[in-house]
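Researcher: Let's do a round of design. I'm pasting the C-alpha coordinates now; please hold your answer until I've finished.
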Protein backbone atom coordinates (compact mmCIF):
# COMPACT_ATOMS: atom_id res chain seq x y z
CA UNK A 1 0.00 0.00 0.00
CA UNK A 2 1.21 3.53 -0.74
CA UNK A 3 2.53 5.50 2.21
CA UNK A 4 -0.17 8.16 1.89
CA UNK A 5 -2.83 5.47 1.91
CA UNK A 6 -1.37 3.92 5.06
CA UNK A 7 -1.37 7.33 6.72
CA UNK A 8 -4.92 8.06 5.63
CA UNK A 9 -6.10 4.67 6.87
CA UNK A 10 -4.28 5.05 10.20
CA UNK A 11 -5.68 8.54 10.64
CA UNK A 12 -9.22 7.40 9.91
CA UNK A 13 -8.82 4.45 12.30
CA UNK A 14 -7.53 6.82 15.02
CA UNK A 15 -10.48 9.19 14.54
CA UNK A 16 -12.90 6.29 14.61
CA UNK A 17 -11.23 4.82 17.72
CA UNK A 18 -11.64 8.14 19.46
CA UNK A 19 -15.28 8.40 18.46
CA UNK A 20 -16.35 4.81 18.80
CA UNK A 21 -13.85 3.20 21.18
CA UNK A 22 -11.11 0.70 20.45
CA UNK A 23 -12.63 -2.24 18.66
CA UNK A 24 -9.45 -4.26 18.55
CA UNK A 25 -9.13 -4.96 22.26
CA UNK A 26 -11.44 -6.69 24.67
CA UNK A 27 -12.35 -5.73 28.20
CA UNK A 28 -9.12 -6.86 29.88
CA UNK A 29 -7.09 -4.84 27.46
CA UNK A 30 -5.57 -7.81 25.65
CA UNK A 31 -5.73 -7.58 21.89
CA UNK A 32 -8.44 -9.81 20.52
CA UNK A 33 -8.10 -11.74 17.30
CA UNK A 34 -11.80 -11.48 16.61
CA UNK A 35 -12.57 -8.86 14.06
CA UNK A 36 -15.32 -6.43 14.94
CA UNK A 37 -18.71 -7.48 13.79
CA UNK A 38 -17.79 -11.04 12.91
CA UNK A 39 -19.85 -14.03 13.85
CA UNK A 40 -17.91 -16.04 16.38
CA UNK A 41 -18.53 -19.73 16.86
CA UNK A 42 -18.42 -21.03 20.40
CA UNK A 43 -19.24 -24.47 21.83
CA UNK A 44 -22.96 -24.15 22.06
CA UNK A 45 -24.14 -21.39 19.77
CA UNK A 46 -23.20 -18.67 17.36
CA UNK A 47 -22.65 -15.38 19.02
CA UNK A 48 -22.41 -12.06 17.24
CA UNK A 49 -19.29 -10.29 18.40
CA UNK A 50 -19.45 -6.55 18.21
CA UNK A 51 -16.95 -4.11 19.56
CA UNK A 52 -17.96 -1.99 22.55
CA UNK A 53 -18.75 1.21 20.74
CA UNK A 54 -20.98 3.91 22.12
CA UNK A 55 -23.06 4.01 18.95
CA UNK A 56 -22.86 0.27 18.30
CA UNK A 57 -22.55 0.77 14.60
CA UNK A 58 -19.91 -1.63 13.46
CA UNK A 59 -21.16 -3.84 10.71
CA UNK A 60 -21.09 -7.50 9.82
CA UNK A 61 -19.47 -8.25 6.48
CA UNK A 62 -19.86 -11.68 4.89
CA UNK A 63 -17.97 -13.01 1.88
CA UNK A 64 -20.02 -14.88 -0.71
CA UNK A 65 -17.57 -17.73 -0.65
CA UNK A 66 -18.33 -19.10 -4.13
CA UNK A 67 -17.41 -15.79 -5.80
CA UNK A 68 -14.09 -14.03 -5.28
CA UNK A 69 -14.53 -10.32 -4.67
CA UNK A 70 -18.18 -10.46 -3.63
CA UNK A 71 -19.13 -9.33 -0.14
CA UNK A 72 -22.32 -8.26 1.55
CA UNK A 73 -23.07 -6.24 4.65
CA UNK A 74 -26.72 -6.71 5.58
CA UNK A 75 -26.79 -4.11 8.33
CA UNK A 76 -25.06 -1.12 6.77
CA UNK A 77 -28.07 1.19 7.13
CA UNK A 78 -30.40 1.20 10.13
CA UNK A 79 -34.16 1.57 9.58
CA UNK A 80 -33.89 5.31 10.26
CA UNK A 81 -30.96 5.69 7.88
CA UNK A 82 -32.91 3.85 5.17
CA UNK A 83 -35.85 6.23 5.68
CA UNK A 84 -33.51 9.24 5.53
CA UNK A 85 -31.95 7.98 2.33
CA UNK A 86 -35.37 7.40 0.76
CA UNK A 87 -36.40 10.93 1.79
CA UNK A 88 -33.27 12.34 0.15
CA UNK A 89 -34.04 10.37 -3.04
CA UNK A 90 -37.62 11.64 -2.92
CA UNK A 91 -36.47 15.21 -2.39
CA UNK A 92 -34.07 14.98 -5.34
CA UNK A 93 -36.91 13.72 -7.54
CA UNK A 94 -35.60 10.19 -8.08
CA UNK A 95 -38.77 8.51 -6.84
CA UNK A 96 -41.43 10.63 -8.51
CA UNK A 97 -44.01 8.99 -10.75
CA UNK A 98 -42.93 11.11 -13.67
CA UNK A 99 -39.29 10.13 -13.47
CA UNK A 100 -38.08 7.10 -15.34
CA UNK A 101 -37.41 3.96 -13.33
CA UNK A 102 -33.70 4.56 -13.70
CA UNK A 103 -31.78 7.78 -13.08
CA UNK A 104 -28.06 8.35 -13.47
CA UNK A 105 -25.83 11.05 -12.20
CA UNK A 106 -22.16 11.65 -13.04
CA UNK A 107 -19.51 13.92 -11.58
CA UNK A 108 -20.04 15.52 -8.20
CA UNK A 109 -22.25 13.27 -6.17
CA UNK A 110 -25.04 14.78 -4.06
CA UNK A 111 -24.30 15.03 -0.31
CA UNK A 112 -26.26 11.89 0.59
CA UNK A 113 -24.26 9.83 -1.92
CA UNK A 114 -20.99 11.22 -0.55
CA UNK A 115 -22.13 10.28 2.93
CA UNK A 116 -22.91 6.78 1.72
CA UNK A 117 -19.43 6.53 0.17
CA UNK A 118 -17.80 7.61 3.43
CA UNK A 119 -19.94 5.20 5.41
CA UNK A 120 -18.88 2.33 3.15
CA UNK A 121 -15.21 3.27 3.43
CA UNK A 122 -15.44 3.61 7.20
CA UNK A 123 -17.27 0.32 7.53
CA UNK A 124 -14.65 -1.51 5.44
CA UNK A 125 -11.84 -0.01 7.52
CA UNK A 126 -13.55 -0.93 10.80
CA UNK A 127 -14.30 -4.48 9.61
CA UNK A 128 -10.63 -5.37 9.87
CA UNK A 129 -10.93 -7.04 6.47
CA UNK A 130 -9.39 -4.32 4.33
CA UNK A 131 -6.29 -5.38 2.49
CA UNK A 132 -2.94 -3.94 3.34
CA UNK A 133 -1.25 -5.25 0.25
CA UNK A 134 -1.75 -4.19 -3.31
CA UNK A 135 -0.71 -7.69 -4.43
CA UNK A 136 -3.89 -9.17 -3.04
CA UNK A 137 -5.95 -7.97 -5.97
CA UNK A 138 -4.12 -10.50 -8.14
CA UNK A 139 -4.19 -13.32 -5.63
CA UNK A 140 -6.56 -16.27 -5.80
CA UNK A 141 -6.78 -16.52 -2.07
CA UNK A 142 -7.68 -12.98 -1.25
CA UNK A 143 -11.48 -13.17 -1.07
CA UNK A 144 -11.58 -14.69 2.39
CA UNK A 145 -9.48 -11.94 3.86
CA UNK A 146 -9.83 -9.00 1.54
CA UNK A 147 -13.13 -7.22 1.55
CA UNK A 148 -12.05 -4.36 -0.68
CA UNK A 149 -8.45 -3.78 -1.84
CA UNK A 150 -6.87 -0.66 -0.44
CA UNK A 151 -6.04 0.78 -3.85
CA UNK A 152 -9.77 0.86 -4.54
CA UNK A 153 -10.78 1.88 -1.03
CA UNK A 154 -8.50 4.92 -0.93
CA UNK A 155 -8.91 6.25 -4.46
CA UNK A 156 -10.36 9.75 -4.62
CA UNK A 157 -13.17 10.02 -5.18
CA UNK A 158 -14.19 6.54 -4.14
CA UNK A 159 -17.19 6.82 -6.50
CA UNK A 160 -18.21 9.49 -9.01
CA UNK A 161 -21.29 8.02 -10.66
CA UNK A 162 -24.56 6.90 -9.21
CA UNK A 163 -27.58 5.18 -10.59
CA UNK A 164 -30.90 4.84 -8.84
CA UNK A 165 -33.05 1.94 -10.01
CA UNK A 166 -36.69 1.63 -9.05
CA UNK A 167 -38.34 -1.74 -9.58
CA UNK A 168 -42.05 -2.31 -9.26
CA UNK A 169 -43.14 -5.84 -8.27
CA UNK A 170 -42.33 -8.22 -11.13
CA UNK A 171 -39.62 -5.92 -12.55
CA UNK A 172 -35.93 -6.78 -12.45
CA UNK A 173 -32.71 -6.45 -14.40
CA UNK A 174 -31.31 -8.87 -17.01
CA UNK A 175 -28.05 -10.74 -16.49
CA UNK A 176 -25.12 -8.43 -17.23
CA UNK A 177 -21.57 -7.47 -16.37
CA UNK A 178 -21.40 -3.72 -15.68
CA UNK A 179 -19.99 -1.71 -18.58
CA UNK A 180 -16.21 -1.53 -18.94
CA UNK A 181 -16.39 2.26 -18.87
CA UNK A 182 -16.68 1.84 -15.12
CA UNK A 183 -13.64 1.00 -13.05
CA UNK A 184 -13.39 -1.95 -10.70
CA UNK A 185 -15.08 -1.68 -7.31
CA UNK A 186 -18.86 -1.27 -7.33
CA UNK A 187 -21.31 -0.86 -4.45
CA UNK A 188 -25.04 -1.62 -4.54
CA UNK A 189 -27.26 -0.37 -1.72
CA UNK A 190 -30.71 -1.96 -1.42
CA UNK A 191 -33.85 -0.29 -0.09
CA UNK A 192 -37.49 -1.28 0.43
CA UNK A 193 -38.30 -4.82 -0.82
CA UNK A 194 -35.82 -7.69 -0.40
CA UNK A 195 -34.82 -9.53 -3.55
CA UNK A 196 -32.63 -12.38 -4.70
CA UNK A 197 -29.81 -11.39 -7.04
CA UNK A 198 -28.39 -14.29 -9.06
CA UNK A 199 -24.77 -14.50 -10.18
CA UNK A 200 -23.61 -16.59 -13.16
CA UNK A 201 -20.01 -17.09 -14.19
CA UNK A 202 -19.26 -15.70 -17.66
CA UNK A 203 -16.85 -18.60 -18.19
CA UNK A 204 -18.91 -21.53 -16.95
CA UNK A 205 -20.46 -23.76 -19.57
CA UNK A 206 -23.28 -24.84 -17.31
CA UNK A 207 -25.63 -22.12 -16.22
CA UNK A 208 -25.13 -22.50 -12.48
CA UNK A 209 -26.59 -19.57 -10.56
CA UNK A 210 -25.45 -18.39 -7.16
CA UNK A 211 -28.30 -16.67 -5.28
CA UNK A 212 -27.63 -13.78 -2.90
CA UNK A 213 -30.38 -12.26 -0.76
CA UNK A 214 -30.30 -8.45 -0.83
CA UNK A 215 -32.17 -7.11 2.17
CA UNK A 216 -33.17 -3.47 2.72
CA UNK A 217 -30.27 -1.51 4.21
CA UNK A 218 -27.68 -3.91 2.81
CA UNK A 219 -24.71 -3.09 0.62
CA UNK A 220 -22.95 -5.42 -1.79
CA UNK A 221 -19.36 -4.80 -2.79
CA UNK A 222 -18.14 -6.27 -6.07
CA UNK A 223 -14.56 -6.18 -7.23
CA UNK A 224 -12.14 -8.29 -9.26
CA UNK A 225 -13.70 -11.56 -10.40
CA UNK A 226 -17.15 -10.67 -9.05
CA UNK A 227 -17.13 -7.46 -11.06
CA UNK A 228 -15.55 -8.73 -14.30
CA UNK A 229 -16.16 -12.48 -14.48
CA UNK A 230 -19.66 -12.86 -13.08
CA UNK A 231 -22.97 -11.61 -14.45
CA UNK A 232 -25.61 -10.43 -12.02
CA UNK A 233 -29.36 -10.34 -12.54
CA UNK A 234 -32.61 -9.87 -10.68
CA UNK A 235 -35.54 -11.81 -12.06
CA UNK A 236 -38.72 -10.80 -10.22
CA UNK A 237 -41.11 -12.75 -12.43
CA UNK A 238 -43.32 -15.12 -10.44
CA UNK A 239 -41.40 -18.21 -9.32
CA UNK A 240 -37.90 -16.73 -9.51
CA UNK A 241 -37.68 -14.92 -6.18
CA UNK A 242 -37.35 -17.91 -3.89
CA UNK A 243 -35.28 -17.85 -0.75
CA UNK A 244 -35.03 -20.94 1.45
CA UNK A 245 -37.96 -22.47 -0.42
CA UNK A 246 -40.25 -19.48 0.12
CA UNK A 247 -41.31 -17.04 -2.58
CA UNK A 248 -40.44 -13.52 -1.41
CA UNK A 249 -43.22 -11.04 -0.94
CA UNK A 250 -42.58 -8.31 -3.51
CA UNK A 251 -43.05 -4.61 -3.03
CA UNK A 252 -41.31 -1.75 -4.77
CA UNK A 253 -37.53 -2.09 -4.57
CA UNK A 254 -35.10 0.80 -4.92
CA UNK A 255 -31.35 0.45 -5.28
CA UNK A 256 -28.46 2.87 -5.44
CA UNK A 257 -25.39 1.72 -7.39
CA UNK A 258 -22.16 3.63 -6.83
CA UNK A 259 -19.34 3.31 -9.37
CA UNK A 260 -16.35 5.18 -10.71
CA UNK A 261 -16.09 6.16 -14.32
CA UNK A 262 -12.80 5.29 -16.06
CA UNK A 263 -10.79 8.30 -17.04
CA UNK A 264 -10.56 8.80 -20.77
CA UNK A 265 -7.05 9.54 -21.99
O1 LIG B 1 -30.65 -2.87 -8.67
C1 LIG B 1 -29.68 -3.55 -8.40
O2 LIG B 1 -29.55 -4.09 -7.32
C2 LIG B 1 -28.61 -3.78 -9.43
C3 LIG B 1 -28.46 -2.69 -10.42
C4 LIG B 1 -27.39 -3.01 -11.42
O3 LIG B 1 -26.91 -4.10 -11.51
C5 LIG B 1 -26.90 -1.96 -12.33
O4 LIG B 1 -27.46 -0.86 -12.35
O5 LIG B 1 -25.95 -2.23 -13.07
FE1 LIG C 1 -25.10 -4.10 -12.62
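Researcher: That's everything. Go ahead.
Model: Designed sequence:
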Amino acid sequence: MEEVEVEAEEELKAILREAFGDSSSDSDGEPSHDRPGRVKANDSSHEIVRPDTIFGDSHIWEPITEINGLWICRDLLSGDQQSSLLSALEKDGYLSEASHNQAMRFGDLPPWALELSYLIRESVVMSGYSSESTDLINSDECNETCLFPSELLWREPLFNQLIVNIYQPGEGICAHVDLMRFEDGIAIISLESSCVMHFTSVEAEVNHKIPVLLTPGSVVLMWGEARFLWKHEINRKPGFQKWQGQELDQKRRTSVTLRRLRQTE
